[in-house]
């Protein structure tokens, strides 16, 4: 108890110095918490956008398609799927499943041609799998068998198109020995959508699956079956994936099931790289905090050299002298970490509610960010208890560790020399 009292008393003896030290501890920790929660929020909303508008939870693909998925091959198709789709829709965790065709194409307006990704969807079932219909801001949802397309807001602005306009789409009808046959088809723009995923808004068009099959001469074939579950839990997704794969294997079909994290591998790779950079940021912040504590405690040792000599003359042992300074550093660490958690929590809460607008940094910056993160306009933080708790523990631990050298230095002072110090 004596050590605790001495440690607390020493903290408040030099209020200005203590305030500077607390700031040196709390501000880096607060910035660290804000940075972690902001990056967690970016990851969370990016993955949500990918699932809601691009991959859903699971996809069934023809064997060999996944390895060439970036090329959107139309020669690796699913030919027998009616019974399989019925079986998939009957599974308890499944809330939606649809047949789709993804294909490379382009939209032609006048003498200009703009590349795009075309997606043939089942208008009846697509709303239960993706959020495109609920993202419509103009026009109406597409109808079965009609030559209609939906186009993203950014894409429509680039082409200066509106609802009711007629646009020509060019699609591949066959691919043999790298020789392509094309077909040009006119479509009415039925609606314009604006999802939270800028990649979808700027390069995707949606049309009825029967029209896509006819335009591409695919007959009843499709390129994928997309499945939506009632949960985002990875364990449950893997469980349903195994069930569907067993159904396929028992039916002697050469199809494979992939989960969203396999399909979004590029983004997850970027996320892992970001985690490494975050770790480096953590080390820098903690180093700054520890330097502030070491400097403050060394100043305390120099300023209180005679006092330390007096304590030794009164019978305090070296270990007890060291404990006084360690408790003092520990209290500074606790208070500084607590202040850092409060400041960081408030900052993260603000960013979770209001976010930080990318447009304030300029349109170019917004476009660059969109190439890495499928998040539109605003970054939001994701505040949870975990980063607050671990940052508090780290801050306290680093403070005590940073105090060890000054405390050890104080304990090694010679009592006689210390008493002569002025």
> What is the domain tally?
2
Distance between the termini: 30 Å
The count of β-strands is 12
So what's the overall shape?
elongated
Helix content: 40-55%
Question: How would you describe what is shown here?
Answer:
- With 422 residues, the chain is α+β, with helices and mostly antiparallel strands.
- The protein has 2 domains: 2-50 and 268-420, no CATH class; 58-231, no CATH class.
- The chain has 14 helices and 12 strands.
- The strands form 2 sheets. The protein has a 6-stranded mixed β-barrel.
- The protein is elongated, with a radius of gyration of 31 Å.
- The two termini are 30 Å apart.
- 38% of the residues are buried.
- The mean pLDDT is 82.
Task: Describe the structure concisely for a colleague.
This protein is α+β, with helices and mostly antiparallel strands and 422 residues long. 54% of the residues lie in helices and 20% in strands. The chain has 14 helices and twelve strands.
Give the topology, please.
Blueprint: H1 2-13, H2 15-55, E1 58-62, H3 82-89, E2 94-109, E3 112-121, E4 136-139, E5 148-152, H4 153-159, E6 166-176, E7 179-193, H5 198-203, E8 204-208, H6 209-215, E9 224-229, H7 234-250, E10 255-259, H8 260-263, H9 265-303, H10 305-313, H11 318-353, E11 356-357, H12 363-372, E12 378-379, H13 385-411, H14 415-420
Parallel strand pairs: 3-8, 5-7
Antiparallel strand pairs: 1-9, 1-10, 2-3, 2-6, 2-9, 4-7, 5-8, 6-7, 11-12
């Amino acid at each position: 108890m004596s050590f605790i009292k001495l440690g607390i008393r020493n903290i408040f003896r030099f209020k200005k110095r203590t305030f500077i030290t607390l700031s040196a501890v709390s501000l880096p920790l607060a910035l660290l918490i804000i940075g972690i929660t902001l990056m967690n929020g970016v990851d969370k909303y990016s993955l949500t956008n990918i699932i809601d508008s691009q991959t859903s939870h699971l996809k069934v693909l023809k064997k060999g398609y996944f390895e060439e998925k970036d090329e959107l091959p139309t020669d690796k198709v699913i030919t027998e799927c009616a019974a399989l789709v019925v079986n998939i829709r009957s599974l308890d965790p499944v809330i939606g499943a649809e047949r789709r065709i993804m294909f490379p194409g382009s939209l032609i307006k006048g003498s200009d041609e703009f590349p795009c990704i075309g997606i043939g969807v089942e208008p009846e079932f697509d709303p239960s799998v993706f959020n495109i219909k609920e993202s419509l801001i103009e026009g109406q949802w597409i109808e079965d068998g009609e030559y209609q397309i939906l186009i993203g807001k950014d894409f429509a602005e680039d082409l200066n198109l509106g609802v009711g306009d007629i646009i020509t789409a060019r699609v591949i009808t066959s691919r043999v020995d790298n020789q392509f046959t094309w077909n040009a088809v006119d479509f009415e723009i039925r609606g314009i959508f604006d999802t939270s995923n800028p990649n979808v808004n700027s390069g995707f068009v949606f049309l009825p699956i029967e029209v896509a099959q006819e335009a591409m001469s695919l007959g009843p074939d499709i390129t994928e079956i997309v499945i939506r579950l009632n949960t985002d839990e990875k364990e449950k997704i893997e469980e349903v994936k195994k069930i569907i794969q067993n159904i396929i294997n028992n039916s002697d079909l050469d199809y494979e099931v992939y989960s969203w994290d396999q399909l979004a591998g590029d983004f997850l790779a970027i996320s892992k790289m970001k985690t490494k950079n975050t770790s480096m940021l953590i080390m820098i912040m903690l180093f700054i905090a520890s330097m502030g504590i070491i400097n403050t405690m060394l100043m305390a040792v120099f300023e209180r050299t005679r006092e330390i000599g007096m304590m030794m003359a009164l019978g305090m042992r070296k270990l007890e002298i060291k404990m006084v300074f360690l408790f003092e550093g520990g209290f500074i660490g606790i208070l500084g970490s607590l202040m850092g958690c409060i400041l960081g929590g408030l900052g993260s809460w603000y960013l979770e509610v209001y976010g930080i607008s990318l447009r304030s940094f300029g349109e170019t910056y917004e476009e660059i960010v969109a190439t890495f993160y499928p998040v539109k306009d605003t970054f939001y933080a994701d505040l949870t208890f975990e980063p607050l708790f671990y940052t508090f523990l780290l801050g306290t631990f680093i403070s005590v560790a940073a105090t060890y050298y000054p405390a050890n230095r104080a304990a090694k002072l010679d009592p006689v020399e210390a008493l002569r110090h002025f």
